[in-house]
């Protein structure tokens, strides 16, 4: 929820409820906000389940599932900090594919005794439409190089302008909002000194000149958005 526009919170809850999800918690793993609510909530759901029939074994083992790069490992590490005062047990990163296999059980609580299983992110083998794919790519659920950082940056610029989130203008020293992604990336590259040397063939031979590094600028633009530094934006 540290990246979401929570003015849409009720709409999100209603949308999820229509899909059959009634137990929803908004969490922030950077500040460990609302993390303490997870284990009591899960424990209650398990104990009220008709499949819950235990006399002696009081351990619970929960599998954590979701699309790539959604924060599964971050939730596990946050739970360990809150309940066990211990550090990371699962590797985290800003790109999909950090968790490559189902890990061993990770204890996250002593009372009750609870273990979690971290799992690799899973996406549907087919994505319904191009824009859905772009949204997933912008969130980092699909590796950038599979879509193209220039394509993702173009969609990001379109999204920010559509939602009137113009903080990028001041951040990168632009004269005003623009829908020309090449112009914006050039300004980003020049403002952050992201340039590259290229050889230009002239009538007198090869000349080395400095040119904006558009790929580096696109990567900077995308990762700045993912950190929440360009505003809180809802893509749906």
TrEMBL record:
Q: Where is the G domain?
A: 62-130
SUPFAM superfamilies xrefs: P-loop containing nucleoside triphosphate hydrolases
Q: Does the keyword Iron apply?
A: no
Q: Which domain of life is it from?
A: Eukaryota
| Gene3D superfamilies named among the record's database cross-references | 1.10.1580.10, P-loop containing nucleotide triphosphate hydrolases
In its UniProt record, which GO terms are filed under biological process? mitochondrial translation
Record-level GO cellular component terms: mitochondrion
Record-linked Pfam families = MMR_HSR1 (PF01926)
Q: Name one GO molecular function term.
A: GTP binding
Mind telling me what this protein is named? Answer: Mitochondrial ribosome-associated GTPase 1 isoform X2
The beginning of the lineage is: Eukaryota, Metazoa, Chordata, Craniata, Vertebrata
């Amino acid at each position: 929820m540290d990246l979401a526009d929570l003015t849409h919170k009720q709409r999100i809850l209603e949308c999820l409820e229509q899909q059959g999800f009634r137990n929803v918690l908004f969490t922030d793993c950077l500040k460990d906000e609302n993390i303490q609510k997870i284990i009591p909530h899960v424990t209650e759901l398990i104990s009220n389940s008709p499949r819950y029939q235990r006399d002696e074994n009081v351990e619970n083992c929960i599998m954590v599932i979701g699309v790539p790069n959604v924060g599964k490992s971050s939730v596990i590490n946050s739970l360990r900090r809150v309940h066990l005062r211990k550090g990371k047990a699962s590797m985290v990163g800003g790109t999909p594919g950090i968790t490559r296999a189902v890990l061993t059980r990770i204890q996250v609580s002593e009372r009750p005794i609870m273990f979690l299983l971290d799992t690799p992110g899973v996406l549907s083998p087919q994505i319904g439409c191009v824009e859905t794919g772009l949204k997933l790519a912008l969130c980092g659920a699909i590796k950038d190089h599979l879509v193209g950082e220039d394509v993702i940056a173009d969609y990001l610029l379109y999204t920010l302008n559509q939602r009137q989130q113009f903080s990028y203008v001041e951040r990168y020293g632009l004269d005003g909002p623009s829908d020309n992604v090449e112009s914006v990336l050039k300004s980003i590259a020049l403002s952050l000194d992201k340039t590259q040397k290229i050889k230009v063939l002239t009538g007198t031979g090869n000349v080395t000149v400095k040119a904006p590094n558009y790929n580096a600028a696109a990567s900077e633009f995308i990762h700045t958005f993912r950190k929440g530094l360009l505003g809180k934006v809802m893509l749906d």
